[in-house]
Amino acid sequence: MASTGSDLRIQGDDNLQSMIVGTVMRKIKSRTWKKQRYFKLQEDCMTIWYKSKKAGNTHSTFSVSDVETVREGHQSEVLLSIADEFPPGRCFTLVFRGRRGKLDLVADSADEAQSWIKGMRKLIENLENMGESEKLDQWICEWFQKADKNNDGRMNFREIRVLLKMMNVDMNEHHAHRLFMTADKSQTGTLEDDEFVLFYKMLTQREDVLRVFQDYSGDGQKLSLRDLEEFLRDEQLEEVDGVQQLAMELIERYEPSDTAKMLKAMSIDGFLMYLASAEGSIFHPRQQSLYQDMTQPLNHYFISSSHNTYLMEDQLRGHSSVEGYIRALKRGCRCVEVDCWDGPNGEPIVYHGHTFTSKILFKDVVNALRNYAFKVSEYPVILSTENHCGVEQQRVMAQHLNTILGDKLLKSTLDGKIPVSFPSPEELKGKILLKGKKIGGLEESLNGLVEPEDSLTGEVSDEDEAADIDEDSLHCNSLRRTAKKSKQRLSKELSDCIVYCKSVHFSSFKHSRIHSKFYEISSFTESKARKHLREAGEEFVHHNARQLTRVYPSGLRTDSSNFNPQEMWNTGTQIVALNFQTAGVEMDLNDGLFSQNGRCGYVLKPDFMRMSERRFDPEVPQNREGYQPRSLCIQVISGQQLPKVNIKESSVVDPFVRVEIHRLPLDQAKQETRYIDNNGFNPVWYDTLRFTIHAPELALVRFVVEDYDKASRNDFVGQYTLPFSCIQQGYRHIHLLSKDGTSIPSASLFVHVRITNLV
């Protein structure tokens, strides 16, 4: 199929031309696995094709859209391991989206490496800058190429039937043939470029959107400026004062017809493009950018947090990698964890102690922090240390932190004075804060009362997860460990690196209220946190209005599964640490909460969780001051281009939608639509679901699409999670995400949303 509006003009780009010719490079998996592969860019400028140099081997492909970024030089553990063999100028890494991993490559020359590095970056940039129309053209082009089995640039009816199955459409053959014949304007029995586009547009005609369009169109053909204003005001609930200006801007932005633009009108094509855009999304664009007050004390925010960040897999035999830190930080995580032990050659190592997980160097973790801490967010990163090192290697840890991080490491209070509360994320921009045990308090450090020879004897780590097995496991003798909490000395050098996050043992809420300093932080396993929530939920919230708290997964979760973070956010707990490497509903909720506020990793807690004079019990939200429940009404209208979940070519999904409300126990609810037989391409429901939300400031709404199966467990198709407070009302599209949080091209739901106050 000929290139479309997404034509990347390769003729004038030497790098892309070189990629299309192809290059032999080494694919590297380890020091011993280095194989030559022939790589080339396909003519569509969207697909990378590669195969072994040996004749007869099958080839593989991947899409440029799957690549998140290109790293230059020795920027992976694998390439670092062969640094003595290949210079950095010849090495680069393609990092894939989600949890897919990466591809380490070595070119024959630095020039060839640069061609691929610059070429790939240009392709990625072009994709990111594509308009909605170009994305659609590109998507149509990709489907054409998938179905054009003999690569002759045209499609016969047999290929069209195969395509429909690939696209999740179980269509009556007579109807499919009628569409085919209508699109075959040349009457050749095959569809070429424009004919296939016509076939696709007939196939994807949106009767649901057309119905809305005609409800507001004065003549059934277009929306005049006044028609569009009425729709925006009455359905989308846009602000009345600016609605005329908004209507004109939308016509200018999304209307493809110059004639309609001159008439200040919008056609059905422009209307659909608006509804499919970010402005037509269920997530309010204003709240996707940084919109919250970032000048409140640090403990007034929920903080995106990772547990055992170094692990890529399970907690017993999993692979440890610096990549875990890079991935977490690039997802907006602002609190990462290191589990430090004495290593060989005087170098501290990081791994999950008393297990068979692999080991990495502490200094490599610190280097990753230096390089990636502030790529996505400029707000502070907390490095939570579980420290099992002796004094000597603690000094090495301190030396690495100081030498590698330099000014990024916070070494003193911001003004050198004794503070009475936390500084704000705004004041701590670009800073890395160390969390751990400290000799004495902040006051003694600032007044110079800690002598160089001073050290603290006691439990160095406040959460030795391997030795201090969670209460949940006490009934299970086979899981008990003989290891005891280590009694070690703490070096002054490492202690001095800790300012605002001194780890302390938790005695009781009453003890903390009377004795604790604001900069003292306690860590709880999930079961201990639940116990506190059950026995003293209001006190727990009150405690977190004054101090930081961290909650981490049970030691029994050896598979790196996660607990429900919602329970802990309900207590105002700021640092709810999850296993970022494990996909599932728990990480969907985490991604959903932190998808707002510019994805900066900080979300301001509601005022009733920040103010110590306000009282809030998560079990009884009706008793709080300012209680205002809301009604949420969602009409699930239709779905578009849902992905196949079964690899069988003849399989087509039977989709249904589940809407879940997550937050307080009183708000936990879920409802489902009916399922639609054999239609993942354009299923239509028009099913209405209603919910009551008692704490709208805390609620998250999760949309899940599954493939119904009466004989076995339903298969996951896609999901989307967002804060209730970020929902746009009216007719909205929901752009679905895969299990690992990456977008699914063109897969969406179309819904109508209404929110009303309940008396």
From TrEMBL:
InterPro entries: C2_dom, C2_domain_sf, EF-hand-dom_pair, EF_Hand_1_Ca_BS, EF_hand_dom, PH-like_dom_sf, PH_domain, PI-PLC_fam. GO terms for cellular component: endoplasmic reticulum; nucleus; plasma membrane. It is a peripheral membrane protein. Residues 610-738 form the C2 domain. Signal peptide: none annotated. Pfam families: C2 (PF00168), EF-hand_like (PF09279), PH (PF00169), PI-PLC-X (PF00388), PI-PLC-Y (PF00387). The keyword Metal-binding applies. It is an enzyme of class 3 (hydrolase). It catalyses: a 1,2-diacyl-sn-glycero-3-phospho-(1D-myo-inositol-4,5-bisphosphate) + H2O = 1D-myo-inositol 1,4,5-trisphosphate + a 1,2-diacyl-sn-glycerol + H(+); a 1,2-diacyl-sn-glycero-3-phospho-(1D-myo-inositol) + H2O = 1D-myo-inositol 1-phosphate + a 1,2-diacyl-sn-glycerol + H(+). It comes from the Eukaryota. Its main location: cytoplasm. Residues 17-125 form the PH domain. Its EC number is 3.1.4.11. Residues 494-610 form the PI-PLC Y-box domain. One of its GO terms (molecular function) is calcium ion binding. This is Phosphoinositide phospholipase C.
